[in-house]
Specification:
Keywords: Coiled coil. By secondary structure, this protein is mainly alpha-helical. It is built from three helices and no strands. The chain has a domain of 80 residues.
Length: 137
């Protein structure tokens, strides 16, 4: 079995020989899922802000050039919040929010496959070394 690291709690092997010099599938599926969740939460906050800003009615109480400028600014900020909400929502969809869906899920499953391949390769190497030592002895 390969040596395991505690870096960032990943538990990924450090020694990937005989397969590779380093982890062939690096990354942190939990971190990706956390990022997806964060993006989703931010998307919801931005959508709420956009709706609330869009609902502010300035002309009821502020009829002047400054009021019109402020209303334009509110509309602009509301539109930007709506755009950002959409983009962060898309990021949530791409990243996933758990290690069983989307990119986080794919990363997790590919790391599991790489770990299985490493275990098989290390077992094969051990068997070869045993057979060679039996043959020599």
């Amino acid at each position: 079995m390969g040596k395991y690291t505690g870096d960032a709690g990943s538990g990924r092997p450090v020694d990937w020989s005989p397969l590779d010099d380093s982890d062939p599938v690096p990354g942190d599926p939990d971190g990706v899922a956390d990022l997806g969740t964060w993006c989703g939460n931010l998307s919801e906050l931005l959508a709420t802000a956009s709706n609330q800003l869009g609902g502010v009615c300035v002309d009821q109480f502020w009829k002047s050039g400054a009021g019109e400028n402020f209303a334009d600014l509110l509309a602009s900020v509301a539109a930007r919040c709506k755009q950002a909400a959409f983009r962060f929502g898309e990021a949530r969809t791409v990243y996933g929010t758990s290690t069983t869906d989307r990119y986080a899920g794919l990363l997790s499953s590919q790391q599991a496959e790489a770990s299985k391949a490493l275990d098989k390769a290390q077992s094969a190497r051990s068997e070869i070394q045993t057979l060679l030592s039996q043959r020599a002895g």
